[in-house]
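Data card: per-record layout.
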Amino acid sequence: MRKMLAACLLLGALPVLAQPIPPPAVTAENGIIRPPYTDAPEYAINSAVPQGDIREFIMYSEDSKIYPGIVRIRELKRDQHDNNAIVPGDTISGPGRYERHVWVYIPKQVKPNAPFMVVQDGHSYINRLAPVLDNMIAQHRVPAMIVVAPDSGGSDAQGSQRGLEYDTLSDRYSNWVESELLPAVTKNYGVTFTTDPEGRAAMGGSSGAAAAFTMAWYHPERYHKVLSYSGTFVNQAWPVDPKTPRGAWEYHATLIPKAAKKPIRIWMHVGEKDNRFDNPESTWHNWPLANNRMAAVLKKKGYDYKYVFAMEGTHTQPQVIRNTLPAALEWLWRDYPKD
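The structure for this 339-residue chain is written out next.
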């Protein structure tokens, strides 16, 4: 950095340094948190409270009617300057098999037609959630909910199975959850789920958070609650849909502003130094900017939302999640029956 500054001074110019997006103004809905990010006390395992069970099973692509499986492929092409050279081309996809691991948290206090939460990228969150829910259910701060935590079909971003599932703006993923995932959990473990949208939540981080919001947006009669960490409300959908050409960026740019208010409650977070925090707006790929815009449009439309901006925070930072998750769950489920 010193060498760069010296060179710039010799040239008579100062460097343009990347600047984080400013946090939102603090309001009843918008909050700012700062490090150090310590674990919330609800993470401490308490042997005196009932411990929920964590189960695991696998779903196979060949059994799915909705997601038969794709893999990302890097297309090759001739170099335009050297016809004898082969260079990477566009990202494409082709058929590809996957095995999807699914984790299920079942509290000891579970009842038939239970409230539940679907958590994307399940392996990343199931062990974070279990001790928190054990403690909070015992304290009657959240209902005795089941957590269904599927992994994606694999890889990431454009052309991948995960990207197809999480970044696509349609009801396809919600339909998969309803028609294939939940019935598989019921078949394996005998639990049943409420059909009341007030008792159904979706959660995720990054593209998994965008998927959680998409589940509620396209089917608000199924889901009224969303929990989003570092939501990918940016231009990452593939293939491009002309109805939503900038992918999930369209939520705050066009979809939410133009639609009637939907019965969705959302708790959302972003880090000050989240992905692409220094990208110009024209890229439609700046996470803090996108989440600030989401909060602003939710406020304007009168949504029930809570937005947490983590200073110095990075993308789905584990320390921030462990600091905020219990409060987020309690806020999200605050008026749902706890017995």
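Known properties of this structure: The helical segments are 2-10, 122-138, 161-167, 172-189, 207-218, 249-258, 287-301, 318-332. The two ends are 58 Å apart (CA to CA).

See the next section for split statistics.
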